[in-house]
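Response to reviewer comment R2.3. The reviewers asked that we include at least one raw input/output pair. We reproduce the pair for Bactericidal permeability-increasing protein here without editing.
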Amino acid sequence: PTPLPVAHESMLLVAVTDFVANSAAFTYFMAGAMRRNITSDMLPRRFPLQLRTKSLGLFAPQLQEHYPDQPMELQLSARRQPLFSCRPDALHGTLFASAEAFVVLPNATRVPAFLLNIDANVTGKPTLTGNRLGGTVKLTGCVGGSAWAQGLPVPQVKNLENLLKFGLWLFGVPWANSECCPHPVP
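Raw output as returned:
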């Protein structure tokens, strides 16, 4: 009998457990790597809402009164370690974030304006196309929490929550997907 020809194909086996995903999240959280400052020069010029008191005054009207048309900065950070669970079809995660807004005065002093806590559920799915490994991230749920304002009335939380959801959808998810962009498999 003649042996059948054997196909020699490369194979990649990737295994991720809840422990690995949550250990990585803990490490990044404790190292302070889950922080990002957003400034107005990071937003596209055509974006309908710029990081200025004039624009964000729609959500906190007295902001524009106290600080007329001043630039603002947004600091996004994790309030606590993200939690992940691994399933055969995807990696599911819950992110516990806060968005703190600051008014940037002409002397570069940052004055706290408001803080909004927001929790988001995300799903990451791996993809394999030819010899390229990648993935996609999808925002599956988002809940706004408490808001706090420094010396100003608390902003309209629902409107801010909708703005942050839109920002996550417009910037956060594409950024996560660009980080997961396909890489060649060895």
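The longest strand covers residues 110-129. The two ends are 36 Å apart (CA to CA). Further pairs are available on request from the corresponding author.
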